[in-house]
Amino acid sequence: MVDAEGNLDLDISKYIADLIPEGFIRFALGVGAPAEIAHCFEMGWQIFDCTLPTRDGRHKRLYNFAQEPKSLADLKDPKMHQFLYINREMYRRDERPISEYCDCPVCKNFSRAYLHHLFNIEDTSALRLATIHNLRTYTKLIEVLRDNKNS
To answer: Which pTM value belongs to this model?
Structure first.
């Protein structure tokens, strides 16, 4: 379902989804960028399996919504999904949470500065906290998609 440049081909994804008979699960293995998940969800794909949230967390790349996501249109917009590279010096004294639109325990209890510090001293809890945050961002993505499907 990817093109020659490695980008998700939405036309092929839709074509394949339409080939799968009703009543069968549509499993999009490897589809993982948040906007791609939103597009595929709209096409009828139901299950997504990807390593991005955990791998990116371990590599100091944290997910951030540009605003509170409320609709499928919000989530399909690539500008909605931002990345915070926590190892950058600008976060050394930043006392804000990773994301103001996240309710995970990391955002409720720790600052960007603290995560920056943990990564700098190579404390393994940094990996865990970054992963927890990124996985919550993905579960929130799916919650918004499901809420919009049911409304």
So the answer is: 0.91
